[in-house]
Design a protein that fits this description.
The chain is mainly alpha-helical and about 120 residues long. The chain has helices spanning about 20-30, 35-45, 55-70, 70-90, 90-110; strands spanning about 5, 10. The protein has one domain (about 20-110). It contains 5 helices and 2 strands. Helix 1 runs parallel beside helix 3 (about 55-70), helix 3 packs across helix 5 and helix 4 (about 70-90) packs antiparallel against helix 5 (about 90-110).
């Protein structure tokens, strides 16, 4: 896994292996602002559970969160879309379009594989 640079020479870290430990390590290293929420969610949703059924949903949620947060430009774009839809739009069709664009990004990043 190697990081890659965008056209602005901004280095984007690669996606980790698709395991909770690898994802946690990547979050701790590259997006530490997410770490507290990640760990609290882990304790609440998984913790000492004997049923590992929630793990795939947990991983999907945090895989996407990390994929967006590791790229400051993409993160700012998604936050802007969501902010504009929630606070600036007076037209519901426009707000819906903004949220749909943000949702498409959230959906697309879930498909990223390790190393991308």
């Amino acid at each position: 896994m190697t990081a890659y640079a965008t056209e602005n020479d901004q280095v984007i870290p690669p996606m980790p292996e698709r395991t909770p430990d690898a994802l946690r390590a990547a979050i701790a290293k590259h997006t530490p602002e997410l770490l507290l929420d990640f760990e609290e969610h882990w304790k609440w949703a998984i913790g000492d559970a004997y049923d590992l059924g929630p793990v795939p949903a947990f991983m999907a949620r945090w895989w996407g969160a990390y994929a967006i947060a590791r790229d400051p430009k993409l993160d700012a774009h998604v936050r802007d879309l969501e902010h504009r839809a929630a606070y600036e739009c007076t037209d519901s069709a426009e707000a819906k379009a903004l949220l749909e664009e943000a949702a498409k990004i959230h959906y697309r990043v879930r498909e990223l594989g390790p190393g991308e």
